[in-house]
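Project standup — Tuesday

K.O.: blocked on the structure for the chain from last sprint. Re-posting the sequence here as requested.
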Amino acid sequence: MTFQFILNIVGLLVFVNFVKLYFLKQINLINSATYFLVNWGDFLGYLKRSMLQIIPSLLILTLIIFALVYVAGDPVSQMLPENATAEDRAILSESLGLDQPFHIQYFQYVGDLIRGDFGMSYQYQEPALELVTERLTATIALSLMAMLVAIFISIPLGILAAIKRNTIIDFLVSGVSVVGKAMPNFWIGIMLILFFAVTLPIFPVSGADTPLHFILPSITLGVALAAEMTRLVRASVLEVIEQEYVQTARSKGQKESIVIGKHVFLNSLIPIVTIIGLQFPQLIGGAIVVETVFAWPGIGRLLLTAIETSDMAVVQAIVFVIAIITILANMLTDIIYRVLDPKIKYN
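H.V.: unblocked you, prediction finished:
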């Protein structure tokens, strides 16, 4: 089950990144496939090196996650009532393997992870990984919508601010970006609920049953990212717009829209792709507040509940899944670099 789950995540991330390429650079699948076929040997070598680098990262990650149990306190005390006898505690400790030395417990834990066993949630009485995977889809869908909101807001505003540099428009966009970055998610969510669900009952505020349920939470989650991306797009476009090939394109009489769209924006994509690749896992991990405000059935609410009840099996599973998504997203971002700029070699 674990390997199938990881394959599904990989497939989803590949699809997401191809969609981003389509909107950002309008690269068709044929060109992308041709690129990978031509550089197939280097690509495989890159994957091998990346996998070798991932192994020690995963070992360190498993050690940190395993240590969470000891930081959180004695799990036996949390699982048994206060009037439990010493014999009951000893029996439970032996059944959980807690009477073994630390390193033996750790190796057993790693073996269980390889088999896809994160343990049972004592609160829900279900396998922890199944609980996470059931709710992960809702969180990923919300994060994708928030990312699209951020892209559709930040790219036009960032380009506009760069073109109108040092004008009132530039100052206004920069000021709005600072304010958007400073506003906390929960406050944005509460204000959106107040205006668009209470004062003007247009959108629903809880659940994930219809497309309308996505609007308010995705805006809430995407505003801060849009503010950060707007400033990055502006800086990246300003850096490219002064290049000689841009001036040459203008001197040839090309329309300004073609110059900006083809020569400026397309060559300023790498920093934008970087922040998209880095921020997507953070959106998943940072959705706790938004999911709580809008009663969204994702892993954010599950994580908060698990922390409140000290359900460490669920906490460990969520942390591990988010870490895997982060590693895979970083790998795919590196691959996209090579698609956007073939001068960057795999070696």
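K.O.: great, moving the ticket to review. Residues 135-313 form a domain with the MetI-like fold fold (CATH 1.10.3720.10). DSSP finds 16 helices and two strands in the chain.
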